[in-house]
Structure formats: structure tokens, C-alpha cells
Amino acid sequence: MRYAAIMNDRYRAAARSGIGAVMGSKMLKAIVVKGTNDIEVADIEAYMEYVKRWHEKMLSHPFTPNRVKYGTTNLIELMQKIGRLPTYNLRQGIFNDYYKIGGETIYRKYLIKPVADFACLQRCGRYTAVYNEPYRCMGGGPEYETLCSLGSRCGISNIEAILYGNWLCNNLGLDSISAGGTISWAMECYELGLISRDELDGLDLRFGNEEAMIELLIKIAYRKGIGNLLAEGSWRAAKKIGRGTERYVMHVKGQEIASQEPRAQKSMGLAAATAARGADHLYGFPVLDEVGFEEEIKERFGSQYLPEIANKLNPRYKGYMVKECEDYMVVIESVGVCKYGTQIPPVFYYDDIVDALRVTCGMDVNVKRLKLIGERIVNLNRAFNVREGISRKDDSLPERLTKVPAPIGPAKGHVVELDQMLDEYYRCRGWNLKTGKPTYEKLVSLGLKDIAEDLLKRGLLVRKASGG
Ligand code: SF4
After folding, report:
1. Is the Cβ atom of 50 under 6 angstroms away from ligand 1?
2. Is the ipTM of this complex over 0.90?
3. 399 Cβ closer than 6 Å to some ligand 1 atom
4. What does the pLDDT look like over 217-226, one tens digit per residue?
């Protein structure tokens, strides 16, 4: 199936864009890594001092206690409050039954223990259990993303069914975001009469039908009946079915949009559109305006951009913000640090990474150099995509989000002003405004002359930025 996950540490999923399917296509079942040697650090005393400082900084942030208590599950409550909780296939960002599927319910009734990745004091992972039939299960998760994808997005408020769906996704190796995105698309098409009950193997696929959702997850994993088509993902399935179903696919570059209603947070809309691997909230992860980290925004981006940059409903300066966040996030991925702690709460920034690299690896890099590395990685990603035919036309969002105003909630009346934000983003990147491609000069200035020459030879690059 197309959106297969690579499962690791039993319940953790590297799932987006179906990299498990890539392993499957190579007949690769698993990779086992076992280490026996000690891990050495460059300066053990400075390292221990650094870890202590890092812990103190993290523990003293007001966001941390709730992260330990709820993991990411209470984002359901937080996102409901700002109208950013995708509901009914992103028709709206408000789910009336949100409290039934939120962090408080899970904490009180289903949580066995918080789970941490090695030595992490945030412990955002969950270990939960449902003791009742028919959804008896026990295992890792859920995350906010799954609660939303299999919950509000599908109009489902039966938390035990959602936990069981999460358990199924983990055990069957499905990306729960794409699974929920595909099922909610099918639900909307069914309700609109665009897909018939016969085509759905007799399933009454209304929004809110948890039994149908569970059955579909199994059918998808085993490619049985309608599951064979839905295992292709909503974008490919809609192309095959036609009949106007394409209009209801909530995707970017063929990948289902994750659990962010971008009409209620414009930066997330832009970040989904520009992410290198299709809709991906983690590529730029611009969450600083989400719950108003004004101080950190001021520190990172400059007070001259306030108040607009901190206003999640204002498209102004979001191009700049997303560009900066993308550059930073690819650095974070490269050094192997978790994105929580760097963005939400936004405790650590470039200075801290410079220190970490010095005490652990003995590397002597400064902030300027790290920023350059980040920008270079993003440009390299883009150059790869340009070679594969990607341009501005693909940095898009579904019309529902750019043309149809949010019907209720704090974002009522808002659409995503994508073109305006894209112009600003490309300008900040030094890319061509019309095509969204890096210019020859930009790539050369980043030390990527060989890449620039290659794209030029293929006729995929222009040499001067136009319109900006
Ligand atoms: S490392 Fe990150 S994902 Fe893992 S438990 Fe800590 S905060 Fe959560």
C-alpha cells in the first residue's frame, strides 16, 4: 500500500509519504541496529554541564508540565479553541465533540503511562489501553495527529474506536494521517453521492461511522475490496474514480494534509504548500504563532515584524517566518534533535545547537554557518524537486482552503491567502516569483554550482530572479 510506515521502537512510526512502501518495494522487511561500543563525546565535563542547562531550561518552560501530562493529546483542546482542528474532511476547524477525544479524556480513562524516547524529560509518548470490547487494545500512542485524523476529521467521537484504530495503524504499519485523510475524503464523497454504497462494499460510510472506519483500515492494509483503491491514497483514488471526487481531496503534491486547518493558522497553510515531500506540517513546523509565543518570535525574527507575524490569522510576514523555520528545521533534522523543544515549546535555538555540536562532536561552527547549511539543504531539496518537475503550480492548497471561507469558529470568514504568502516566501528565498524555482545565482551563492549547472543544462533554471 502507498502510505505504509516504517515502525520503530515498537510503536513509533516514520510514516509520512509512504517510506515503508519504498522498503516494501525493495523487499526489505526490517533493519536491525545494535551497538556495543561506548559513545564518546568531545568534552564530557562541558557536555554534562550542557545537559544540565538544557534540562533546566526545558523544565522551567510553562509549556512543559502539560506536555508531560498529556503528550500531544491535549492539542485537541488547544486546536479546538483556535478553530484549527480539521473536522469533516477539513470542511471546518471546530468539532463539537472534541472533549470526548481530547487529552483530558485520555489522561483520565486510558493512559497507562507516559513514554519517553531515550533520556527525554518531556515524555510526550503515550501508552494506553482500552479494556472494553469491541475495541479492547493496548499499546503506544495516540498522538494528536491520529486523534484528529481518525477522529474529528472523520466526524468520529468514539474515543475507544479511535484508540483501536491507532492500534491497528501501528500494527498494520499505516500512516494514520493519510489513512484518516483518505477515509474522510471517501466519507464526504459518499455523503455527496459521488461514491455509491455498492462501490464501498456495502459500507454505510457516513461521517461518524466508527465501525466503517475500522473496517476500512483493515481492508486498506490488506488491499481487500474497496481497500485496494483506498490503499492508493485519496489523490490517486480520486483520479481513478473521477466524477468530481477530485475536488474533495485535501492534499498537497498528492499527500494528505495533516491535522492543521490552515484557514485558522495561515503559516501552516504556507508551510504545507512549500514542504518538499508534499503536505507536511513538520518540514517548516511554524508553530510559534499557533499559541502566541510572542517573546520567542521577537527574539527569533525581530520585533519590527510584530504584531502581524505573531497573529496566526494575518498572512503578513508568514513567508519570512516559514522560510526561517524551514531552514532551522532541516538543521535540527540533520543534527538529530527532536523538533519538540526547538519549536514547541521554543526553548532551543541556533546558539544552543552550536554549543551542542561543540561539546558532543568537537565541531567548531557558528550560527551564521548553521543558517547557511540550513538554507543550502532546503535549496538542495527544492532543486531535486525541480528536476522532478515541481514548480510554483505545485505549491498549492485545495480550493476549499483558499476560496471557501471557514464557516465557524475564531477563523470564521477566513481563507488562506496563499498567493500573497508565496510571493513573500519566494522573495525571501531569492527564488523566481513566477516559477518558484531557485535561480542559478542563488544556487551558486550557496555553493551549489554543480546543481545549478545540471538544472541549467536540463533547461529547468533561469539565470535571473524575475519579479522580485
Ligand atoms: S524526544 Fe521528542 S518525540 Fe521523543 S519523547 Fe521527547 S519530546 Fe517526545
Report:
1. no
2. yes
3. no
4. 999 999 999 9
